[in-house]
Amino acid sequence: MKALLLNGSPRKGNTYAALSAIEEGLRTIEGMEIENIILQEKKMAPCMACDVCRGNGGNCVIGDEGNEIIEKFYEADIVVFGTPVYWWGISAQLKIFVDRMYSKGEGNLGNKNVALVVTGGDGLENIQYELIFKQFRSIARYLDWKIVFEKAFSAYATDELAGDSEKMAELTELGKSLK
Ligand SMILES: Cc1cc2nc3c(=O)[nH]c(=O)nc-3n(C[C@H](O)[C@H](O)[C@H](O)COP(=O)(O)O)c2cc1C
Question: Ligand 1 within 6 A of 122 CB?
Fold first, then answer.
């Protein structure tokens, strides 16, 4: 089984901590191949809507590191998306990747177990988490993904979530559930 973690935060903060804890859980699953990608570190331009991919077998003409990540995504059985809340939505880094996935063709992206972890500065009563979950659930329904879990954490300072051992332990347990 192949697991891919996609981190949409540009800093090594709360999303990074959450995904690291989930990765720790994933590592306990025998035979699991894991890759953890920080999207900010990759050269990935936004989709140009040229639609060339629609007539060339699903190859994005941009040809940057985004293409390699799309291939890894295509190969993965399990995908964990992590994003900070930016203006009530997902980060630009993650959105660029989601748009670029389009090149593969909607019918070729299904059959995955996915999870979503969101970290935002505001409290969990803020509608922003529900907005992000609704977007993600809509994509999952459209592409035929099974959502294993979706989880939001309220944390603002860079090291806030990493300092909460209870929440980190909860995330590690969630990682173990991703079979
Ligand atoms: C550009 C930008 C926009 C943000 N927008 C929101 C927001 O709409 N709601 C919120 O609760 N926090 C917002 N924040 C705060 C981050 O969500 C918060 O600090 C989070 O912990 C960042 O996650 P990270 O440490 O993984 O980068 C914003 C931060 C930045 C830099």
Answer: yes
- The per-residue DSSP string of 62-107 comes to T-SHHHHHHHHHHH-SEEEEEEE-BTTB--HHHHHHHHHHGGG-GG
Q: Which CATH class is domain 17-115+135-176?
A: alpha beta
Pocket test of ligand 1: the residue of 9, 80, 85, 151 to mutate, having most ligand atoms within 8 Å of its CB, is 85
Determine which residue's CA is closest to atom 28 belonging to ligand 1.
86
User: How much of the chain exceeds pLDDT 90, in percent?
Assistant: 97
- Angle between helices 14-26 and 165-176 in degrees, nearest 10: 40
Specify the 3-state DSSP secondary structure of 176. helix
Q: Over 90: is that where the pLDDT of 106 sits? A: no
Task: Specify the ligand 1 atom closest to the Cα of 88.
Answer: 8
pLDDT in tens, 21-54: 999 999 999 999 999 999 999 999 999 999 999 9
